[in-house]
Amino acid sequence: MICDKIKIVRKISKYISLFLFFLLCVDLKAQDFNADTYWDGVDFADTALIDSKAFSDQVIGFLYQYACCDEQQFDSLSILGVGLVLEKAKVNMRVYEFVIEFLLNGYSAMGKSQVVDYLLSYPKLFEGEISMEEGLRLDSITEPYQLVKVGAKAPEFVGTTIDGKPYSIYGSSANRTIIVFWSTDCEYCHDFLTLIRKNLDLKSEYELVTFALGDNSDDVKQSVKRMRLPGYHFYDDLRWEGMAFLNYHVTSTPTVFVLDENKTIVCKPYDWIDLKQWINSNV
Fold it and tell me: Is 242 among the domain residues?
């Protein structure tokens, strides 16, 4: 069975996942890189750049070489690199919109919430630089991401678990809620969930809520049982088109959200290390 992460990348093939590209192009580290001359010969005013795979690859190559040399500073360097690209792209708002949407898809798939939040601020655009029509187009592109960024109120979900229990996110009195979108055929999802179970107090300190992709509800039940997961678990035959996946703008698995007692999104960790670091800094 093809992993659901690959399925969703194909579904949005117009926007290649930055994460997958980074894994495939590690040889770029060995190449000479000069940020000042990298874009020589590229006319950012040319609308032919829109939907151009060659241009998309060039954007990824620039950001990769700009940020991947320092894993500890990846987010801050990525933000700096993104700003440089968008400074050039804003000469043509159609190109700027394309780059914004392309990068939002990629960094969102990577779970890089700091970079996503930076993109949502419309970098390098200042008041009066764009028309109302252009602003509305940008708002339309970014709206799904604005709703689930760190600091936003989490979308409500009301439903019945795979065990027949009624549940509402806003009806819960949990001080902290961990929401995990996962897939039964994703081994990394299983590892992530198992680490959460083994390392966090899911009986009193955290409430675990999961939304699964699987062949059917029985498939999900068996996986939950094998992992011995407490909490509230949901399955929808609509899969990626299920209400929770749509409302939380989930494009890959696993995708994780941490909510506080007010149901505000306080963390969107990419992996267990990210989540552990957030927990250690918020004890």
Answer: yes
pLDDT digits (tens, 9 = 90+) for 194-210: 999 999 999 889 999 99
Please state, in angstroms and rounded to a whole number, the distance separating the CA atoms of residues 173 and 261.
7
| Pairwise CA distance, residues 19 & 64, whole Å | 10
**DSSP summary character for residue 239:** G
DSSP state at residue 154: P
> What region, left, alpha or beta, does residue 84 occupy, with left being phi > 0 and alpha being psi -120 to 50 degrees?
alpha
- Taking the CA atoms of residue 55, residue 270, residue 119 and residue 143 in that order, the dihedral angle to the nearest 10 degrees is 110
The pLDDT tens digits of the residues spanning 118-163 come to 999 999 998 888 999 999 999 999 988 888 888 999 999 999 999 9
Domain housing 137: 4-146
Token pair in block for residue 216: 């059917």
53: number of Cβ within 10 Å: 10
pTM of the predicted model, to two decimals?
0.71
Q: How buried is residue 159: exposed, middle or buried, by Cβ count under 10 Å (0-12/13-18/19+)?
A: middle
Tell me the C-alpha distance between 237 and 229, whole Å: 21
**Cis check: omega of the bond before 254, within 30 degrees of 0:** yes
Same domain assignment for residues 183 and 253: yes
Q: Which amino acid is at 64?
A: Y
